[in-house]
Amino acid sequence: MTELLAARRSRLWQLVAPADLAAWVFADPVPAPLDPSPADTPTDWADGLDEAGRAAWALAGWVARLVVPEAATTVGKHWLLSRLDDTRPAKLRLTVGVLEILGLYESGEEVWLRVHGWLIGLALEAGALDLAEWERRGIGLEDDRTKTLAEEKFLLRCPDLETAFWLLRQPPVIAGLRLLSCWVAAGPFSFEGRYRPEVVGRAWQASASLSGGVATSERGFDRPYAGATVTADLPAQRSFDAPAYRAGVREHDELCRLMIARLAASGLSAGAGLSGVDVDLAWRDADGRQFVAEVKSITDANHAEQLRLGLGQVLEYRHRLRVAGLPVNPVLLVRRLPDPAWRQVCAENGVVLLAADDDLGGTPFAVSPVEPVEFGDRRS
């Protein structure tokens, strides 16, 4: 590969040697540092974008930082990011050399990637990629029809952003993207006049939310669960019920440990926090789907208030993580459920509500994603 790259005439060799670049193709998939940024960008640039739009911009910037060689110093010279607003919805496009490496709609409806076919072929032969799983997730693998390296690359199509993030956690896919990007980055680049620093700057800034998100999602949590403690000296206020507070903390801790134990019985590891969001519990299931849980202690007197609070918290977690480009399935866990109507309330908002006293027959918590209930053409 070093000899292959060295045969290309390129200004890129003023910054990095072909041998170093060949080694980078197979190195750990760590994105380029955020600092220095290619352009200054106002912090309110994303005002008006919905969650999918923010996540799409974050993905575009993160891929650029991950697969373009020397991304910060070669922008506008070897690559650029474009926003095409003459399409509906608007399209984001990452162009390296003369080739579009990444394309996606701002709505997050579809993502397509071009990868070097040689590495993908080797990975398939070695069993490092599972095409049956790709098919189940709706990922298409096609021979690419563009002229550049026509017989040496594949086009990968993903139906949505969540699937694209899953695909980009596969090391052979990253290596295939990097190899193709190295090859075309070392060739001609005739689009310098189209470079818009503000577009690259926006995506670069948006990708900051993914610096820990995609990496930590491999195990599904930020840190091991450490439990909760209550200090001996509690506030001496007339309105503060210290025994009730201590009981609530104990119940919260017991529920967390029960959930962790039942997930462990299925071979799953759970911990606390995810991508900097302070969720009570987080884990990934055997299919790689990400879950986060809010745990609430309740009594007959406060169950409605606690469930309202817990539902609001877990919906906030889901929003913040989706903006960060990490779609999750939210779970609300309580000891018992005095009012069964709350199951439907949660289901209508795409939240799984679990009670520890459910008749689970000794089996571990079987948590499945819940789709929001449809009301006409709009989802709640």
Q: What attributes does this structure have?
A:
Trna Endonuclease, Chain: A, domain 1, six-stranded antiparallel sheet, 380 residues, alpha+beta, five-stranded mixed sheet, 2 domains
Note down, in words, how this protein is organized.
The chain is α+β, with helices and mostly antiparallel strands and 380 residues long. It is 36% helix and 16% strand. It folds into 2 domains: 2-211, no CATH class; 219-379, Trna Endonuclease, Chain: A, domain 1 (3-Layer(aba) Sandwich). The protein has helices at residues 2-6, 18-25, 51-67, 71-74, 117-126, 131-136, 161-167, 171-185, 197-206, 213-216, 242-264, 303-323, 341-347; strands spanning 79-84, 91-96, 99-105, 111-116, 140-143, 153-158, 270-271, 281-284, 290-296, 329-334, 352-355, 374-375, 378-379. β8 (281-284) and β9 (290-296) form a beta hairpin. α2 (18-25) packs antiparallel against α8, α3 (51-67) crosses α9 and α5 packs antiparallel against α8 (171-185). Mean pLDDT is 83; it is low at 211-217, 231-235, 359-366 and 372-380.
Helical content (DSSP H or I, runs of 4+): 25-40%
Low-confidence runs (pLDDT<50, min 5 residues)? 211-217, 231-235, 359-366, 372-380
Number of strands: 13
Number of domains: 2
Q: Describe the biggest sheet? A: 6 strands, antiparallel
Spell out the helices and strands N to C.
HHHHEEEEHHEEHHHHHEEEHEHEEE
Structural class: alpha+beta
Average residue pLDDT: 83
Radius of gyration, CA atoms, in whole angstroms: 24 Å
How are the strands ordered across the major sheet? 1-2-3-4-6-5
- Number of helical stretches of at least 4 residues: 13
Tell me the span between the first and last alpha carbons: 51 Å
Could you tell me the strand content as a percent range?
15-25%
Silhouette: elongated
